[in-house]
User: Which sequence fits this backbone?
């Protein structure tokens, strides 16, 4: 995978001389199992690093970067462009405030759009990942409002081209970089560059298809259309036991191949509802939904096979196992890859994905009621933590945030003893480097009798981060076993 780091002095690595974020990022990607080659004509600020090439030019404005990029793109044919530009269109006092000046800050987003056009003209299939400007501090604080204005326009620009089908994603560096991470109020220090690398890598894991996948050879039989009366296909005299599944890519089934989904006789009698929330770090399109309550089957949405593409996750084996044990089951799935608890999901009432989930669950329960059925939220499955292992501070905060989330959901759903099954891929590079997140989930499960931790160890993978079909099915069985133990404990059997 050829990567072109394109931009200004921050791309070059100003103030470190050791490649800035690039060498940190290279190490992360190699640990992820990627074969990477940074390309470009410059080796400035790259002393002693193994892959020094880049296209970062100190003091360059967006327009100047576009001029440099035109030739470089033709020469190197990069697969991925990491674009960080705009600081020099914002930072200079005086000239930038004159609407007649070519570097007027108010039109910087228009110049960025022109730069994107140049990139796609030369490399129409390249993945472009764009970074927002970081905080402007110290001597540059006077330009902070201009930087915020530019970032707001940049978000809309990325959304615009994502909606048009372009391979583009956004990294919001203001979620991870603070004034303490800047050496002079504008350029990152070593810690800041390391955080930049983690943020780039986090987005790349989702925006760029994995290097390989090993689909489990299930029979190629589609689930077929769901019966319109799926809420009436289960015993109407028994309340539905609703399980809510939430989390990031392995909760979703990022690499579950829906074209190899094998229909089971139990599927038609399991009400299922899914949603992929939009407006987060990676999936910046509109939220995607199924057809309300339908029978259990693959989903056609944003995943590792495309956008949209058929995929499935742990819900399949979990639901089948519980239903065949005599439980009157319904499943609501709200998942999206690459999302953190601290920045994307957040707590109830904090306007994050959690609030989108709560709204979807509210609608789902109302539809059950309209169908003349009774239902009870009987379990919550949370498969997430990898994205909270991006920094030491976020990993340290994870236990407190997850504890609050569980408490908040129990309060929202009026189920103070709601069974909760948590888990993650503890062998993922993030948790492996910062095992505090793994220990946080284990500690919560040990302290709360209604929380159980589950492991993904030993499950088959399609790549360094994601389970393949076989792994997803076996993961679902593990979740079902944990939920069954809770339901026996609470005497939550069919009809009760």
Assistant:
């Amino acid at each position: 995978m050829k990567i072109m780091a394109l931009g200004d002095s921050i791309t070059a690595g100003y103030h470190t001389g050791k490649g800035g974020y690039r060498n940190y990022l290279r190490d992360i990607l190699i640990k992820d199992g990627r074969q990477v080659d940074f390309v470009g004509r410059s080796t400035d600020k790259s002393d002693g690093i193994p892959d020094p090439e880049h296209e970062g030019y100190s003091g360059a404005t967006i327009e100047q970067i576009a001029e440099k990029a035109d030739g470089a793109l033709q020469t190197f044919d990069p697969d991925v462009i990491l674009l960080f530009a705009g600081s020099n269109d914002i930072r200079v006092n005086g000239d930038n405030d004159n609407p007649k000046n070519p570097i007027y800050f108010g039109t910087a987003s228009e110049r960025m759009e022109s730069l994107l056009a140049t990139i796609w003209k030369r490399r129409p299939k390249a993945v472009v990942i764009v970074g927002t400007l970081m905080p402007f501090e110290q001597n540059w604080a006077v330009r902070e409002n201009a930087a915020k204005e530019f970032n707001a326009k940049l978000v809309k620009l990325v959304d615009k081209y994502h909606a048009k089908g372009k391979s583009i994603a956004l990294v919001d560096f203001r979620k991870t970089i603070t004034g303490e991470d800047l050496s002079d109020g504008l350029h990152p220090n070593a810690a800041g560059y390391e955080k930049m690398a983690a943020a780039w890598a986090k987005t790349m894991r989702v925006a760029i298809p994995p290097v390989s996948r090993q689909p489990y050879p299930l029979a190629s039989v589609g689930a077929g259309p769901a019966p319109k009366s799926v809420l009436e296909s289960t015993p109407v005299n028994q309340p539905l036991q609703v399980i809510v599944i939430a989390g990031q890519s392995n909760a979703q089934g990022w690499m579950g191949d829906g074209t190899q989904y094998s229909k089971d006789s139990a599927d038609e009698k399991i009400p299922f509802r899914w949603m992929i929330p939009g407006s987060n770090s990676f999936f910046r399109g509109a939220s995607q939904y199924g057809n309300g309550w339908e029978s259990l089957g693959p989903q056609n949405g944003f995943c590792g096979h495309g956008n949209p593409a058929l995929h499935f996750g742990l819900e399949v084996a979990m639901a089948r196992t519980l239903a065949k044990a005599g439980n009157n089951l319904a499943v609501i799935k709200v998942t999206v890859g690459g999302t953190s608890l601290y920045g994307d999901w957040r707590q109830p009432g904090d306007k994050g994905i959690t609030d989108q989930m709560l709204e979807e669950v509210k609608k789902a329960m109302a539809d059950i009621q309209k169908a003349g059925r009774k239902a009870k939220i009987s379990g919550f499955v949370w498969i997430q933590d990898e994205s909270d292992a991006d920094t030491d501070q976020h990993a340290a905060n994870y236990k407190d945030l997850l504890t609050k989330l569980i408490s908040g959901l129990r309060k929202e759903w009026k189920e103070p003893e709601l069974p909760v099954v948590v888990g993650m891929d503890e062998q993922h590079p993030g948790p492996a480097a910062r095992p505090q997140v793994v220990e946080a989930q284990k500690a919560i499960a040990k302290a709360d009798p209604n929380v159980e931790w589950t492991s993904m160890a030993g499950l088959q993978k399609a790549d360094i981060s994601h389970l393949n079909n076989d792994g997803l099915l076996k993961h679902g069985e593990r979740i079902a076993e944990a939920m069954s133990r809770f339901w026996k404990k609470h005497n939550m059997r069919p009809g009760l």
Observations:
- The longest helix spans residues 392-412.
